[in-house]
Design a protein that fits this description.
6 helices; two-stranded antiparallel sheet; globular; 9 strands; Rossmann fold; 228 residues; alpha/beta
């Protein structure tokens, strides 16, 4: 399958890429919404290339934005259909990007926000040799389908979930439920709760995320940074 996705990119400055970080934006946004995070993480990941594809579908409720799939947070079956429907196009894009930059599968990390986190978890836990999954303000869709999935692929990528304790769109409870379900499936999961934050990402969450990715990629941190 040829990927139909594309979006803004941020390349290492004067370096050949050694890692690939792919951002998956939220419902009604596009790749431009997250690519600037790559600029904030370049000090931690100087050899990474950052890519933020626009979702394939226009968003019905936000005409200038995009969606990975139609979404009704109250309908678990619709969410499950949605992540499964979006997965093939995203997988094709990821495969293409790894070839583009000459990287192996274990040099890839997925970073999602909201709906993008749902897709990152779904796709990332079913790919081979993924380095890491970082999810902001999202939820694990279809946890009952997860048992044995990553083990069958021969790898279990580490996961970090970050959530605001004032999130009124996807409640904080989703963080703890997702972490518990991942643990049941044997997936190593860390979590970080951002105090006073709604459905968004704060500086602390960004710092924790960048440190997590550096650790998963085995990157030596610059002086002044402590590991998460």
């Amino acid at each position: 399958m040829v990927s139909s996705l594309d979006g803004p990119r941020l390349a290492p400055k004067g370096r050949a890429p050694k890692q690939l970080v792919v951002f998956l934006h939220g419902y009604g946004a596009d790749g431009n919404d997250l690519i600037a995070i790559g600029q904030q993480w370049q000090a931690l990941l100087p050899d990474a290339v950052f890519v933020a594809p626009h979702a394939a579908q226009p968003c019905a409720q936000a005409p200038i934005g995009r969606q990975w799939f139609a979404m009704d947070l109250r309908d678990a079956k619709e969410l499950w259909r949605g992540v499964n429907g979006a997965a093939p196009v995203l997988n094709a894009f990821l495969d293409t990007e790894l070839v583009r930059y000459g990287l192996s599968a274990d040099r890839l990390a997925l970073v999602g926000f909201s709906q993008g986190t749902m897709l990152a978890l779904h796709v990332g836990l079913r790919r081979q040799r993924l380095a890491a999954i970082l999810g902001y303000s999202g939820v694990l869709v279809g946890p009952e389908h997860l048992a044995g999935t990553s083990k069958a692929r021969g790898t279990i990528p580490p996961v970090l979930l970050v959530h605001g304790d004032q999130d009124d769109l996807i409640p904080t409870e989703a963080l703890f439920v997702s972490a518990e379900e991942l643990a049941k499936a044997g997936v190593p999961c860390q979590w970080h709760l951002s105090l006073g934050i709604g459905h968004g990402i704060d500086a602390g969450g960004l710092t924790q995320g960048g440190l997590f990715l550096a650790q998963c990629f085995g990157v030596k941190l610059p002086a002044g940074f402590a590991r998460a």
